[in-house]
Specification:
Chain A: Keywords: Cell membrane, Membrane, Transmembrane, Transmembrane helix, Transport. The complex is a heterodimer. By secondary structure, chain A is mainly α. Helices cover about 70% and strands about 0% of the residues of chain A. Chain B has a domain at about 130-345: Orthogonal Bundle (MetI-like fold). In chain B, helix 6 (about 115-150) runs antiparallel to helix 12. Chain B is mainly α. The chains are: A mainly alpha, B mainly alpha. The interface between A and B is large, with 39 and 48 residues.
Chain lengths: ~290, ~350
């Protein structure tokens, strides 16, 4: 068999222009703009997020308010910009958290095998039975509303997906000649697993994890929409839709539609980026 | 709970009676397989119930304080909560009492309604089930059609259009779908009601049209994509070519040779669907003001009614595990090859 290059090498070689790279660039630009806007919200937003303008309540787009105002006369563009902070931070933490937990547990199950594998497999099976949103709702019921409890719960809920993938990759990697070579050279199992095997599977796992970002964003926004996530007056996209719900019946669609469109745009952008990354790194032909 | 396990037993009997060959033979391997699946089901349910029950112990501090958050801790209330949860008993005994009650459909008393949890949940269950069933039908019809149409036109314009359509839909979370549908088809055009479930069967169906569409969106994508890739895989198989070259009609080939073989993955996905629909219905029910168990769950979290939260979480998880076990067990009936493969292992 011809030795295949390590996964890291594959990833490094990949970033060449490809078909569909234009949508990828657009998606990266969209996400970068959103991230910068969120980071520099005080400079980007035309108004403070909770500034009331009583002369323009439920107003349409105008020179003063580009996206119009909500039922309290707050500028929608400003709230959107500030809301991007919690909208992006939550999923980012969940993706990082679930990747760390899942990768370590997957490594343990795939590397050690045997009892570790059997027990962890059973634990993952149980966690698969808890949809992430349900686990997040349970966490809120226990620890109270806000961003922290749902983020921890979702990190746990998404970890089994990461772990299952890591486990499969590690099992395949374990039989590769380089692992045997390190063993013969007298290196310990922990060293090989953590310093040699883990870095090799990390790119694929990381790329697959970015695909979770969009789902998590939608679910966390959904949780705020239910009134269980980020609490007003903190501007948050889901909470904005929740607050704007009463206005919809009165025909004031904009305060609800604006944050909804923002959610959809970010989810689309993140999914395009995630799929392109997995394609480049070779995640598409995974088990 | 009792009802669920008997459903499984019936399904198991049927699957066992059908046997791995699907020819009505009773085989030891089939029975062993079903028994193994049932064992796995019970173990998963047991572990899930541990998680749901003991999650309360993760909250630091006094359980009475936790359970009576936001309520007046009067001596009577404290006494009632202590008695209801058996807080003076050791934890494992509290758990056994809870499970024993749950198996009889007794989940204790709701703190906000001063009624049995089972009664409160039971009143709300029909709306959610109706919503899930309507949504499931929509998903089956639209998802399967989209997937089949795309697969049969693979690489052509119709395939691309369907794929783009599915990709766009996949980015629409149910709360976004809900508010868009309410805005366009309820408020602006006035074709559908914005709120509530209405009176009588016909009116309820009418009230649930928009909610079931909002709920179906994400899952249509899932079923559509799986159907397409599964069909495409089967269409490329040799046996399909053989069937075609034998002069069978295209419709027959697709129905008997392609679709039947493509059903496996589609069925597996539908198992995931059930829990997904039940959970996503929290959002849709909140958006459309429906009195189902989803909105009850949210309301109970909001009003710190933990017994109801516990019961609904356990109900959803049980539904997920049981449905998946049934699908697992029924798979050889639909696809005899999977049983043959399992027996050979």
């Amino acid at each position: 068999m011809i030795p295949t290059p390590t996964l890291t090498l594959k990833a490094l070689r990949a970033p060449r222009p490809r078909i569909g790279s234009r949508t990828f660039v657009v998606a990266v630009l969209v996400l970068a703009t959103m991230t910068l806007a969120a980071l520099f919200a005080p400079f980007v937003a035309p108004y403070p997020p909770d500034a009331l303008d009583f002369s323009a309540v439920n107003a349409g787009p105008s020179a003063a308010h580009w996206l119009g105002t909500d039922g309290l006369g707050r500028d929608l563009l400003s709230r959107l910009v500030y809301g991007a902070r919690t909208a992006l931070l939550g999923p980012l933490l969940v993706v990082i958290g679930s990747t760390i937990i899942g990768m370590l547990l997957g490594l343990l199950a795939g590397w050690r095998g045997g009892w570790y594998d059997a027990v962890l497999g059973r634990v993952f099976d149980v966690l698969f039975a808890f949809p992430s949103l349900l686990l997040a709702i349970l966490a809120v019921a226990l620890f109270g509303k806000g961003l922290i409890a749902p983020v921890i719960a979702m990190s746990i809920a998404y970890a089994p997906f990461v772990a299952r993938l890591t486990r499969a990759l590690v099992k395949a990697e374990r039989t590769r000649p380089y692992v045997a070579a390190y063993r013969v050279a007298g290196f310990g199992g922990a060293f090989i697993a953590l310093r040699r095997v883990l870095p090799n599977v990390m790119p694929i796992v990381g790329a697959q994890s970015t695909l979770n970002f969009g789902y998590v964003l939608a679910e966390l926004a959904g949780l705020s929409f239910l009134g269980l996530g980020v609490q007003p007056p903190t501007p948050d996209w889901g909470a904005m839709i929740n607050e704007a719900q009463a206005g919809i019946v009165g025909g004031h669609f904009l305060p609800a539609i604006v944050p909804a469109v923002a959610v959809v745009i970010v989810v689309v952008a993140v999914n395009i980026i995630g799929e392109e990354l997995s394609d480049r790194i070779g995640g598409a032909d995974l088990p | 709970m009792a009802l669920d396990s008997s459903t499984v037993a019936v399904a198991a009997q049927r699957a066992a009676a059908a046997g791995p060959g699907g020819g009505g033979r009773f085989s030891a391997a089939g029975v062993r397989r079903v028994a193994g699946k049932l064992g796995g089901l019970l173990l998963t349910l047991f572990l899930a119930s541990l998680l749901v029950f003991f999650s309360r112990f993760l909250v630091p501090g006094d359980p009475v304080t936790f359970l009576l958050r936001g309520r007046k801790p009067s001596p009577e209330a404290i006494a009632q909560v202590t008695a209801q949860f058996g807080l003076d008993l050791p934890p494992w005994q509290q758990y056994l009492n809870w499970v024993a009650g749950a198996l009889h459909g007794d989940f204790g008393r709701s703190l906000q309604y001063r009624q049995d949890v089972a009664t409160v949940v039971g009143e709300r269950l029909p709306v959610t089930l109706m919503l899930v069933v309507m949504s499931g039908l929509l998903i089956a019809i639209v998802g399967l059609t989209a997937g089949i149409v795309a697969a049969l036109n693979k690489g052509r314009a119709l395939d691309r259009v369907t794929l783009v359509g599915l990709t766009v839909l996949s980015a629409i979370p149910s709360f976004v779908g809900s508010i868009v549908l309410i805005s366009v088809f309820a408020v602006q055009s006035g074709w559908f009601p914005t709120f509530g479930t209405g009176e009588g069967f016909g009116d309820t169906v009418y009230h649930l049209v928009l909610p079931s569409i909002a709920l179906a969106i994400v899952f249509v994508v899932l079923v559509g994509k799986v159907t397409r890739s599964s069909m495409v895989e089967q269409l490329g198989r040799e046996h399909v070519e053989v069937a075609t070259s034998r002069g069978l009609k295209r419709g027959t080939v697709i129905r008997r040779h392609v679709f039947r073989n493509a059903l496996g993955p589609i069925l597996t996905v539908s198992g995931v669907l059930v829990a997904g629909l039940l959970v996503a219905s929290t959002i849709v029910e909140a958006a459309f003001g429906l009195a189902g168990i989803g909105s009850l769950l949210v309301q109970s979290v909001d009003r710190l009614d933990f017994p109801v939260v516990q019961a609904i979480v356990m109900l959803v998880v049980t539904a997920f595990v049981v449905v998946n076990a049934i699908i697992d067990i029924l798979e050889p009936v639909i696809d005899p090859r999977s049983a043959a493969g399992a027996a050979a292992r």
